[in-house]
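so the lab meeting is tmrw and i was supposed to have these ready like two days ago... anyway. pasting both below. for each one the top line is the aa sequence and the line under it is the structure tokens. i havent really looked at them closely yet so no promises
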Amino acid sequence: MRRVWLIGGLVLAFLFQVSFFGAAHLLGVAPNILLVAVVLLVPVLAPPELVATAVGIGFVLDMVSGADFGLRTAFFVMAALALLVLRNSGVDSERPVTALLLILAAGLAYNVVIATGLVASGTFPAPWTILSLGLREFILDAVCLVVLRFWVVLLGREGGTLPIRRRAL
């Protein structure tokens, strides 16, 4: 049942990110719901499951984007590995403030990675543009954090069939 909730929630988040938020562009940007999901899944999933989830998310986003194939897969895998290193060093990503800071850092890193991918095309946006987009995206990601937190609590509740796993690399 745990895998059904995980896959169902990720498919729903993917559909919202690609279809609804991809067209709506609230505040001029689309929130990165799947990045928020990866940050929230760090305390719930074992390291191999988290990395496999990140590979799947990145690959599907690469298939949909049609440009710079592999960039999103590489980013999500590196983000998952960095989050696992932080988790193993004692950072508690279950706390909302910590999760927000991790999402802010990962969102800004994502925008820098995407902007760096634009260098090959000869158009590099100004640094303040990247920062502005990152901060507007962070506002929407914070709202997504509140909504997705209920899904993660259901996915990782203790005492039921969905135990929280804490394993080292």
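ok protien two:
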Amino acid sequence: MKTIVMTAAAALLAAGAALAQDVIKLRAGGEVKGKITVLNNKNVNVAEAGGKATALKAEEVASVTLGGDTPPSLQKADAAMAEGRVERALNLYPAAIEEIAKEKKRELHKQFVYWNWAAALQQKGSPAEALEMLRKLRAECGADCFLRPLSFDRSLEIARPKGDEMVESVLTEMKGEPDPVGSKAQMEIARMKFSKGDYEAASAIYSKLSAVAGTTYANDARLGYLRCLRLLKKQDELEGQCKQILADRTSNGPSLLQAAGAALAAIQLPKVEKDMAKTRELLMSCIQSIALGPPSGKEEGEDYALALLTAAKCYNILSKTMTKQEAKDEYRNRAIGYLKEVKGAYPKTAMGEQAQKDLIAIGEEKPKDSKDAPNK
């Protein structure tokens, strides 16, 4: 996650007139200086010198530094954190909250005080207290608070090393938020269900999210739904979904196209393997999926591996129809190459084990209990 923090520390005091300005750094590079007039999780508006007004979307903003009326205790607390004096900072943040009201500082400062306070608690090694401070930020700074969406991301970062129970407590609150925050929570819940093998529960969540076209996670949810259908062996529904996806290649991303192409070919090959023309068509579909490349994620890797396994089966089937030995060998060698790629890239997985079985079936390797050494 790209962290957005307020850096109104003691060093800014030396900046003179610049201190009176708010500084908004942009993700695309550059910055805007002036007086923030609107700061929420949708928009950031700035009144610049010379009467110029700049309107930004919140997602365009990389960081915000509030200047001019920074609570003194916040400056001291942030300076203490910079020096590694966590306990001193923790003693100063409560005073900073009080100063906002007593000294009539802008309410915008409050969310940044709580944000930095939570970071100090996290650094101290108090994750439960850090999470509670981020909840306080959300409770006191409102539903449209600039840091509200980011506070959920930070909460998940804090919770994940501590186990599912703490993560689930964050997601329970998070899933009630508007899109994209609420959808992200639902996706996280579905992934947790998936990783635990509860494919029915995961598929129900993925199906619901994918049904709302145009939402942030609709495509990712549909991809998750395909994987659930495959693992649940709901072949008819999976085949129908894959056909819909492949019929609209311009609207769907490469990961979804790869998963659909691989799954559809794997479903249809047993039905058409005696029809060489259709087997070739399925081989072409697999090759298109393979051409999209191996992704980095484990789940995405299964789609790529499935395309390789199915393409290998196609090549092996077609090799037996070749009249020339040279052609037979070429097709067989391509099958072997794909199978060895799966075996090497996905060891100790169902896909890797299937590749091993297929290599044995076509005579490239010997069973483990065979007295003969395997071919290499």
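from a quick look at the 2nd one: The first strand starts at residue 22 and ends at 26. The CA atoms of residues 368 and 374 lie 8 Å apart. will dig more after coffe
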